[in-house]
Amino acid sequence: MKRIFNAKTILVVLVFLFIPWFADAQCAMCRAVLESESSQNAAEGINDGILYLMIFPYLLVGGLGYYIYRSYRKKKYEA
After folding, report:
1. Environment class of residue 13 by beta-carbon count within 10 Å: exposed (0-12), middle (13-18) or buried (19+)?
2. How far is 43 from 33, CA to CA, in rounded Å?
3. Helices in the chain by DSSP H: which ranges?
4. Is the pTM of this model over 0.70?
5. Closest residue by Cα to residue 26 from 37, 16, 15, 14
6. What is the C-alpha separation between 69 and 73, in angstroms, rounded?
7. Planar angle of CA 70, 75, 79, nearest 5 degrees
8. What is the DSSP letter of 39?
9. pLDDT tens digits, residue range 38-53?
10. Residue 1 banded pLDDT, cuts 50, 70, 90
């Protein structure tokens, strides 16, 4: 049987998990309003909030994938 998790698959998953940390996510309207401000504290706070909200779908999908993997391995060793 072919291994599901090889080094390339793990690397791709890690890259997709850490993309939100490298992204500066803002919509055009938020960017226009926040760039007109003299201090950039609000813009950094908005970016951090958006990135924080982006993490949860990745965590949910990762947790579901881990649960499926664990139940698959458990069933394989019971039989």
Report:
1. middle
2. 9
3. 7-22, 28-35, 41-78
4. no
5. 37
6. 6
7. 150
8. S
9. 777 777 787 788 888 8
10. very low
Q: Which two tokens stand for residue 71?
A: 């139940």
The closest of 45, 49, 40 to 20, measured between CA atoms, is: 49
In this structure, how many other beta carbons lie within 10 angstroms of the beta carbon of residue 78?
A: 6
Instruction: Provide the pLDDT for residue 79.
Output: 61
For the CA atoms of 73, 67, 64, 55, the dihedral, rounded to the nearest 10 degrees, stands at: -110
Nearest partner of 8 among 20, 67, 16, 71, judged by Cα:
16
Q: Please name the residues in contact with 17: beta carbons below 8 A apart, sequence gap of 6 or more.
A: 58, 62
Tens of pLDDT, residue by residue over 7-26, are 788 888 888 787 766 666 56
